[in-house]
Amino acid sequence: MKDTFLKACQGFKTDYTPVWFMRQAGRYMKEYQKIRQKYDFLTMCKTPEIAAEVTLQPIKILGVDAAILFSDILVPLEAVGLKIEFIEDKGPKVYPNIRDEENLNLLKNIEIDSLDYVFKTIKILTKELEVPLIGFAASPFTLATYVIEGGTTKDFVNTKRFMFAQSEGFHKLMDFLTDATLNYLQEQVKAGVHALQIFDTWAGILSPFDYEVFCKPYVKRIINKLKSVPVIYFSSNTAGHLNHLKDLDADVLSIDWRIDIRDASLALKDQSLQGNLDPLTLLGTEEELFKRTEKILIDGMNAKSHIFNLGHGVNINTSVDKLKKLVDFIHEFSHKLRRI
Amino acid sequence: MKDTFLKACQGFKTDYTPVWFMRQAGRYMKEYQKIRQKYDFLTMCKTPEIAAEVTLQPIKILGVDAAILFSDILVPLEAVGLKIEFIEDKGPKVYPNIRDEENLNLLKNIEIDSLDYVFKTIKILTKELEVPLIGFAASPFTLATYVIEGGTTKDFVNTKRFMFAQSEGFHKLMDFLTDATLNYLQEQVKAGVHALQIFDTWAGILSPFDYEVFCKPYVKRIINKLKSVPVIYFSSNTAGHLNHLKDLDADVLSIDWRIDIRDASLALKDQSLQGNLDPLTLLGTEEELFKRTEKILIDGMNAKSHIFNLGHGVNINTSVDKLKKLVDFIHEFSHKLRRI
Question: B136-152: buried (b, 16+ CB within 10 Å) or exposed (e) per residue?
Answer without folding.
Answer: bbbbbbbbbbbbbbbbe
